Fold this sequence. Notes:
Blueprint lengths: L1 H10 L1 H9 E10 L10 E3 L4 E3 L5 E7 L1 E8 L6 E7 L3 E2 L2 E3 L27 E4 L1 H5 L10 H5 L5 E3 L7 E3 L7 E5 L2 E2 L4 E2 L4 E2 L6 E7 L13 E7 L8 E6 L3 E11 L3 E10 L1 H5 L5 H4 L2 E14 L4 E16 L3 E19 L2 E20 L2 E20 L5 E21 L8 E2 L3 E15 L4 E15 L2 E6 L5 E7 L4 E19 L2 E12 L1 E4 L10 E4 L7 E14 L4 E18 L15 E17 L4 E16 L8 E2 L6 E10 L4 E10 L3 E2 L4 E5 L2 E5 L6 E2 L3 E11 L6 E10 L9 E6 L7 E6 L5 E10 L1
Amino acid sequence: MNKLILLIVLLLPGTFTFAQQKHTISGTLKARKNGESLIGASVRSKNTGTVTNEYGFYSLTLPKGAHTIEISSMGLQTASLNIVLTRDTIINLALEESSSTLNEVVINGTTQGRSIKGTQMGIEKLTTKEMKNIPMLLGERDVMKAIQLLPGIKSAGEGNAGFFVRGGAADQNLILLDEAPVYNASHLLGFFSTFNSDAIKDVTVYKGGMPAQYGGRLSSVLDIKMNDGNDQDYNVSGGIGLISSKLNVEGPVQKGKSSFLISGRRTYADMFLKLSSDTTLNNNKLYFYDLNGKINYQLGDRDKIYLSGYFGADKLGVGDNFGLKWGNGTGTLRWNHIINSKLFSNTSLIFSNYSYEISIKNGANDVKLYSQIRDWNIKEEIQWYASDKHNVRIGLNSIYHTMRPGDITSSAGSSFNSEDFQKRYSWENALYLSDVWKTTEKFNVSYGLRVTAFSILGGGDFYNLDKDGNVKDTMHYKSGEFVKTYLNLEPRLAMSYQLNSSASIKASYVRNVQNLHLISNSTTSSPTDKWVASTNIIKPEISDQVSLGYYKNLAGNKYELTVETYYKTMQHQIDYRDGADVFVNGSIETQLLFGKGRAYGVEWLLKKKAGKLTGWVSYTLSKTERKIDGINSGAWYNARQDRTHDIAIVAMYQLNEKWTLSANWIYYTGDAVSFPSGKYTVGNEVYYYYTQRNGYRMPNYHRLDIGATKQLKVRKHWSSELAFSLYNAYGRENAYTITFRTNKDDASKTEAVQTALFKFIPSISYNFKFR
């Protein structure tokens, strides 16, 4: 026993040293003006430091004695405290707003910029201040469009809110709103995202090396945090644009202790249609709406509860003949509890729902198709600030998935039969542990492990297939019966070495597993794409990614240079058999093929973070391929999201106190696409045949957007601004689709017809704030 005690003492010297000679300061940080908790605020002493977590909590262990503590956050005044530590101490602080605006650091979440010492790789952060001046389509401040200007994140196409990250497909991105998954984050077929920028506090994108608390997708995590609401004063803000208007109301329920937020947005294109005398137009529907809500309450010094939700829907309709509506609903009930100066607990109950309905009425046919995915999710996480060298997270997550792949209902006289495709049920569990270890002054390591168990549940029928994809055996399972459980280990490892005070190199490895898959045979994401879970045939997708990066702060932190390279392999990738029909087939596995993938590339990012002129230049060079038996004779072929070059230049210039100018220029090489290689005629019908999957390229794409914002007169309780933008300023007719048709004068010739959506799109919006 004595030898065992001696061994423990030798292995854990830091713990005993801490107990004898060190104390901890902890607390929460917020902005004094509105009471919003500060995410990623810096708390530093001379030789060490930490940052606040997602809820504004920090914990910093220091030697006994006198210290000067410096606390800073973007756009707020830095606070300096002189303290003498003789015991554990709680310091809650509210930072004042910065008096300077023209020289404000505007790109990163803290005044120190990207962490040189930290081990996290492949991370990008945006705030609403950054997104405010970036010119966007029809003047909408759009999170999804803004992140597509960052390296390694590629647009899914003209006007599309979908995106591809480091070779992954659109469904391989985990999109979270206050911890709730959002399964379709687009409005108006992808031209707008579901996220109202007025309701957003923080946006973080993980492209690789994501911490162990995140899982369920192969390629990236987009973590969006909503504003808590102003707990000091009531505020009303909003905007009126050409296509939509929005209104945001927030204020205290009990000043300094609780607050609420309500934010809404709606388009009104349908209202203009009703003004038309043309009956083929005035009965059509075309609109979407968003509603964000949040309330929080401080129960005491150690406890705080939050309740937040999002509801949004789109409705498109062509008279009584065709209708399409889809929408998301999320809800998060969260309890923060400070156990002690070193332990912080977050408990969340989360609900998420996505559904769509298609209705078609044509003569005697009256048909409706309905599909849905619904989650109930509980999560518990403990953050343990073990010492000045170790920051540990331990958590568990349990999700119950219900999927309705499609219910078809039709009228009695319809030529289509009603059919209810069987629901699918699954139970996804995860346990994770991670530690950020400050080994030396220059070398840091973070490591973690996520263990996932995905259980497929009955009732319903499951199948065995032959080599040609035909059903050879059907197995029936009762409700709640376990069909199969996939158990996977997902290790995470990252390291950083600080070369000097302004430069470092980092390396990381991460394995991710995905059990929910989006089935789509269109070239871009669509609201009618179908989500399916892993089955006995559809196996979990698995990716392994290694990354290496160089990071450099230049000119006294005014500039930031980042270079990252990555290589990713993917298992159990899904593609479709030739002629697949994935929407009216109950046994969808018969339409699918499975194989592997690989993606690799280099990303460059140069940011200017301070001064009147700010912005960034990003460049991505990459390759993405798949290899699946049954496609291209089993040879490697381009994935549809493969794109060789991707460039974005973003600039914002503070001309004076009233005017801000902005512009962004985008260029990328054409996506891989399948075009016909020939044609043949049967009777009078022309049919095209295809010889190679994704063997051709769309034309190269480039576009310039410009914008300007004018601050109108500012009064004590009122401020307003006008925002102008011009999308596609030089009128480039970029290809949205390319179709093929027979030349009407010579049937032996085939014509390629290019369709462009946007040429010059000007916009103006009026934004106001009443306080």
